[in-house]
Design goal:
Blueprint lengths: L6 E4 L2 H5 L4 H6 L12 E6 L12 E3 L2 E12 L2 H19 L5 H15 L4 E12 L4 E4 L4 H15 L13 H11 L6 E10 L8 E5 L6 H8 L3 E9 L3 E6 L4 E6 L1 H4 L9 H27 L8
Antiparallel strand pairs: 1-6, 2-4, 3-4, 4-5, 5-6, 7-8, 7-9, 9-10, 10-11
Helix pairs in contact: 3-4
Organism: Aerosticca soli
Subcellular location: Cytoplasm, Nucleoid
Protein name: Recombination-associated protein RdgC
Length: 305
Amino acid sequence: MFFRNLTLFRFSPAVAAGLDGLEEALAAHRLRPCGPLELATGGFVPPVGRGEAAALVHAVNDCHGFCVGSEEKILPAAVVNDELARRLEQIAEEDGRRVGGRERKRLKEAVYAELLPRAFVRGSRLSGYLDRRQGWLVLDTASRKAAENALTRLREALGSFPALPPAPEESPRALMTEWLGSGNLPGELALGDECELRDPAGATGAVVKCRRQALDADEVKEHLRNGKQVFQLGLVFDERMSFVLGEDLVVRKLKFLDAVTEELPDSPEDAAAEADAAFALLTLELERLFARMEAWFGLARPAES
């Protein structure tokens, strides 16, 4: 249940008020298996449990968890081309002729149509939740493309869902560069052990990536004195979670520390109680982090839908 990456979007109180009936809206867009001639399908799957009876929304307090699923047929081009080559050779041997371009195209389409129903199916899942009280859409991915695809699925299910990436008043890159250079971080933050520094002008293309490195070391600060800026910075928040924060405010490599995981019940009553406890803890911890990010970077919630 704990997320590993966070891509964030923000929505207004008016949008939050219109999220009643979320379960019913997602149910109309439930994931269905790929048909014999379909390349891929997408839709919503239960975030907890399996089967048609499992709910598509896992609600704890004002946070509503969901999961976007997809199925994709795996049919490598090499497999199609090998079968096509075999058929072309067969025609050459049996009919004594070469196949022209149009016929070759039709043959390839026929091969593809015959092999597709027998192709392997690969499934994927992307978890997320809606915090109606604070107006956050949180997606467990660092991929902007995957996040946009999940947002599109929500918009299709809800009819309309105006949500935007965070719009910081303070430049995250400039602020994180100042934190790293001066060592003067907000009281609840400490430096982690990795960062990515780049030449902001991009003239030289210089990129420095540090991992398992003391970030207050002189060699790191020397790069800053030479004009590089922080594009990603490893941080520890309140000794409860560690992560790498990007200039795009995407949170990567999120890890909850012992102070958090020890709060989970040792012997939950059942799987549902365990899922509730983990989801409640996740959302409460991230609510605290997002509140501080609002203060650090000036992240205003949209006032109108």
